[in-house]
Write a structure and sequence with these properties.
Mean pLDDT: 92
Keywords: Kinase, Transferase
Protein name: Carbohydrate kinase family protein
Pfam families: PfkB
Organism: Nocardia tengchongensis
GO molecular function, one term: kinase activity
Largest sheet: 8 strands, mixed
Radius of gyration: 19 Å
CATH superfamily: Ribokinase
Number of domains: 1
CATH architecture: 3-Layer(aba) Sandwich
Structural class: alpha/beta
Strand order of the largest sheet: 4-1-9-10-11-12-13-14
Strand content: 15-25%
CATH class: Alpha Beta
CATH topology: UDP-N-acetylmuramoyl-L-alanine:D-glutamate ligase
Distance between the termini: 46 Å
Order of helices and strands: EEEHEEHEEEHEHEHEHEEEHHH
Length: about 300
C-alpha cells in the first residue's frame, strides 16, 4: 500500500444532530419559537471524514455503534450518502446518540447532548487501522477525553502524523502529558469572533505546552492562523452569506488535512481549509460537500478581489 492509498483515519463520536434556529434564547421558565429545523451529523470527526471523501481522499471513520432505530437509520444513510467508510456498526444493544444544537439571531450556539455510553464505546473501539493510516484526525473533547488519550498513544506508537482538534477547550493536564514530546503533531482549536484578540496568547500557550509542529486557530469571520516556532501564517475569512456554522470547523479540518497530506505548503493548506469552511457555512445541510474544483474557485475569487 502506497502512502497515497493509505487512508486518513478520523476518530470521534458519531451521533445524529438536529439544528434549531430561534430568534433569541428565552429567559428562564419562558419559551422561544423555533424558526427552522435541519438534520445533520455530529461530531466534527464524521464531517471531516465526509469532506475528505468528497475530495477523493481515502478515509475511515472510527466511531461508536449506532442503534437499530429510526435515528440510527438516518445516520447510516448520511454515511452512505457521503461515502464515508466507518467502523460504526448497527446494534440492538444501543440507542443512537443524539445532539441538539440551538442557534439564535445573535450568533450564539448552545448544544444539548444525549451521548450515554459514548466514552465507553470509543474506549473499546478497534484502533488497528491507525497502523496503516497516512494521517490521523482526533476530536479530543473533554467529553470523550479518556478515549482520546488512547488514540494519541496508538498514533504515537505508529509515528503517524496526528491532528488533534480541541474544539475550543483548553488543553487538559492529561492530554498535555500524553502529547509531551510528540513532534508529528498539529493542534487545531478555535476562539469566538469576539475573542479574536486572544489568538496570539492561545497559540503561544499551546506551542509552549506541546511539541506541535503547527498550532492552527480559527476565529470565525476573522479568518485563521497557523503558527510554528519559526513563523506565523494567516488567512482572512472568505466573505460569504452565512446560512449556518454547524461543522464549519470540521470542514476547515478536512481542507487542511487535504493540503498537508499532499505535501502542500501551510499557506496553501490554510487557504483550502478556509475555503472549505466557508462553503460549509453557505450550503444546506443536505447539499453535496465541495469538490476540489469548487474550493479552487473560491480561492481564485479571493485572489481576484485582492488584485482589484
Amino acid at each position: 500500500m502506497t502512502t497515497q492509498d493509505r487512508p486518513v483515519v478520523c476518530v470521534s463520536y458519531l451521533a445524529a444532530a438536529e439544528l434549531w434556529s430561534v430568534p433569541k434564547f428565552p429567559a428562564p421558565n419562558h419559551g422561544a419559537e423555533i424558526l427552522t429545523t435541519e438534520e445533520s451529523i455530529a461530531a466534527d470527526g464524521p464531517m471531516t471524514a465526509a469532506v475528505l471523501a468528497a475530495l477523493d481522499v481515502p478515509t475511515l471513520l472510527v466511531a461508536n455503534r449506532i442503534g437499530n432505530d429510526d435515528v440510527g437509520e438516518r445516520v447510516g444513510r448520511w454515511l452512505q450518502q457521503h461515502q464515508v467508510p466507518s467502523t460504526a456498526v448497527v446494534s440492538t444493544d444501543v440507542t443512537t446518540p443524539k445532539i441538539v444544537v440551538v442557534a439564535d439571531g445573535r450568533d450564539t450556539r448552545t448544544w444539548f447532548a444525549h451521548l450515554l455510553g459514548i466514552t465507553d464505546e470509543l474506549s473499546h473501539s478497534d484502533l488497528s487501522p491507525i497502523a496503516t493510516a497516512s494521517m490521523v484526525y482526533l476530536d479530543a473533547y473533554r467529553l470523550i477525553e479518556t478515549a482520546a488519550l488512547r488514540v494519541v498513544r496508538a498514533a504515537r506508537d505508529c509515528g503517524t502524523e496526528l491532528l488533534v482538534n480541541l474544539g475550543g477547550s483548553p488543553l487538559s493536564d492529561a492530554l498535555r502529558i500524553e502529547l509531551a514530546g510528540y513532534r508529528n503533531l498539529i493542534i487545531q482549536t478555535n476562539v469566538d469572533d469576539e475573542s479574536r484578540s486572544a489568538v496570539p496568547e492561545v497559540t503561544k500557550q499551546l506551542l509552549t505546552e506541546t511539541s506541535a509542529r503547527w498550532v492552527v486557530v480559527t476565529a470565525g469571520a476573522y479568518g485563521a492562523s497557523a503558527a510554528s516556532r519559526e513563523r506565523i501564517v494567516t488567512t482572512p475569512a472568505f466573505r460569504v452569506q452565512v446560512r449556518h456554522t454547524h461543522c464549519a470547523g470540521a470542514a476547515f479540518s478536512g481542507g487542511l488535512l487535504y493540503g498537508l497530506r499532499y505535501g502542500m505548503s501551510i499557506e496553501r493548506s490554510l487557504l483550502l481549509a478556509t475555503a472549505s469552511g466557508a462553503l460549509r457555512c453557505v450550503r444546506h445541510q443536505n447539499a453535496p460537500l465541495p469538490t476540489l474544483l469548487e474550493l479552487e474557485s473560491v480561492i481564485a475569487s479571493l485572489a481576484r478581489t485582492s488584485s482589484n
